[in-house]
Amino acid sequence: MKNLKQLKFWNFGGMYYFYFMIWALIFAFLPFWLNKTANLDTSVSGLVFSAMAITALVLEPLYGVVQDKLGLRKWLFGFVVLCLLFIGPFVQFAFIPLLEINAIFGAVVGGAYLSLCLNGGVGVVEAYIERSSRASNYEYGHVRLFGSLAGGTAAFIGGIMFVQNSYSIFWACSISAVVLGILLFVLRVDKDSYGEETPADSDEKEEETPVTKENIMNVFKNRSFWGFCIMMIGIATMFDVFDQQFPNYFASFFNDASQGELVFSRIASVQVFLEAGFMIATPFIINKIGAKNGLIIAGAVLFIRVLGSALFTEIWMLAIWRLLAAIEMPLMLVSIMKYITGVFDVRLSATVYMLGFNFAKQVGITIFSYVMGVLYSAIGFQSGYIVMAFIILAFVIAGGLIMRSEKYYTKNSLEQHAA
C-alpha cells in the first residue's frame, strides 16, 4: 500500500512535469518565434495572446462546471491532452500559412488553438490534479513543484533547440503530450477517499452532495470571490503579460539577439529550479501567514520586479528581476489553491478556480496584452513597464481590501457548528 501511494505521488508529479514542460516551452519561446520566425511586430504578437485569452474566456465557465460534475473522471483532461498532441503539426504546417494569408486572421486562429491546450486547458489540468492529489492526501505544493522542475528543464534545453530549429520546441511539446497521455491513462484515484482530508464530518458529507445551481450562484454572492478576481488580474494577468514580451526586451540589450535568447534561457532555467526549491517550503509558509497574505506578498514581488526592470536595466540587474519570479510564482500558486479550498465550497473548487482565477486572468490578458503591445510600440518597453507596475499596485490593493481572509470563514463556520 505504501509503495502504491509513493507510485501515485510520482504519477501526479509526472503529469505536472510533462504538462508544464509544454507550457514552459511555448510561453518562454513563443515571443521569440513570433518575432524571429513569423516576423510579427509587437502589436500583432499581442493579438495572438489576446486571442488565446478570449478563447479561454469562452472555455473557462464551461470547463469549470463540467469538471466539477465529472469529479475525478478524466474525460476533459483527456480532451486537453488530445489538443496538445497536435501542437507540433499545427505550428509547422498551418500557423505560418495562416499568417501569410492574413496576419490578424492567423494570429486569432493560432491563439485560439493554443488556448485549447494552454490558457483554457491549464485550468482543467490544475483543477483535476489538485482535486485528485487532495483526495490522495498529498500537499498540493509538493506535487506542483514538478511543474517548476519542468520549467527549468524546458528553459535549459529550449534555448539550444530554438537556436538550432525554431520549430523543434513545438514538436517537443507533442512528444511530451504522448507521455502525459500515458500517465493520465494509468492514473487510478480511489473515489471513496475523496474528501477524507476534510476534518469536519459536515464537510465530508457536503463533499459527497451533488452540486446544484444554488451552490454555484452562492459563489457570486460572496464578496471574497470578486476581490479574488481583482487580485488575480493584478497578479496572474500582469505576470503573464509582463512575461509575454520580456524575452525580447532582455535580448535587446545584447549586440547579438541569438546570444541574448540563449542567456535568457539559462536565466529562466535557474529561476524555475529555484522556484521548485521554494515550492517545497511554500505550503508551510502559507499555512503560517494565510493564503490572502501570501497573495498580497506575491503581488508586491511582481510590482518590484516590473518596476525594477524599467528603472535598472543592466543585464545582471534584469537577471535578478527575472529570478524574483522564483519567489512570486510559488506564493501565488499555493495561495490560490489554499484560498479556494479554505473559503469556498470544496465541491466547486474547479468552478471557482476556472472563474475566479483563469477567467478573471484571461479577461485581464485579453485587455492588457493588446494595450501593452500598443504601449510598447508607442512609448517603449521601459515606460510601458512603469505604467504596468502601477496598474499591478492598484489591482492588488483593491483586491486585498475586498477579499476576506480564510480565517474569517473558519471562525464563522466554527460559530455556526457551535450554535
Describe this structure in words.
The chain has 419 residues and is mainly alpha-helical. The chain is globular. The protein has a single domain, classed as Up-down Bundle (Growth Hormone, Chain: A), CATH 1.20.1250.20. α1 packs antiparallel against α6 (121-135), α6 packs antiparallel against α16 (349-379) and α7 (140-164) runs antiparallel to α12. It has helices at residues 2-37, 42-70, 75-85, 87-101, 103-117, 121-135, 140-164, 168-186, 201-208, 213-220, 223-251, 257-289, 291-311, 315-323, 325-343, 349-379, 381-402, 406-418.
| Beta strand % | under 5%
Mean of residue pLDDT values: 84
Query: What is the CA-atom radius of gyration, in angstroms?
Result: 21 Å
Summing up helix and strand content along with how strands pair, one would put the structural category as mainly alpha
Q: How many beta-strand segments?
A: 0
Q: Output the CATH class name.
A: Mainly Alpha
**What's the CATH topology label?**
Growth Hormone, Chain: A
Sheet having the most strands: none
**Please, how many helices?**
18
Helix content percent band: over 70%
**H-E string:** HHHHHHHHHHHHHHHHHH
Q: Shape from CA axes?
A: globular
* Low-confidence region ranges: 193-207
CATH superfamily: MFS general substrate transporter like domains
For the record, give the distance between the C-alpha atoms at the N and C termini, rounded to a whole number.
41 Å
Question: What secondary-structure arrangement, pairings included, does this model have?
Answer:
Blueprint: H1 2-37, H2 42-70, H3 75-85, H4 87-101, H5 103-117, H6 121-135, H7 140-164, H8 168-186, H9 201-208, H10 213-220, H11 223-251, H12 257-289, H13 291-311, H14 315-323, H15 325-343, H16 349-379, H17 381-402, H18 406-418
Helix pairs in contact: 1-6, 1-7, 1-8, 1-11, 2-5, 2-6, 2-16, 3-5, 3-8, 4-5, 4-8, 6-16, 7-12, 11-12, 11-13, 11-16, 11-17, 12-13, 12-15, 13-14, 13-15, 13-17, 15-16, 16-17
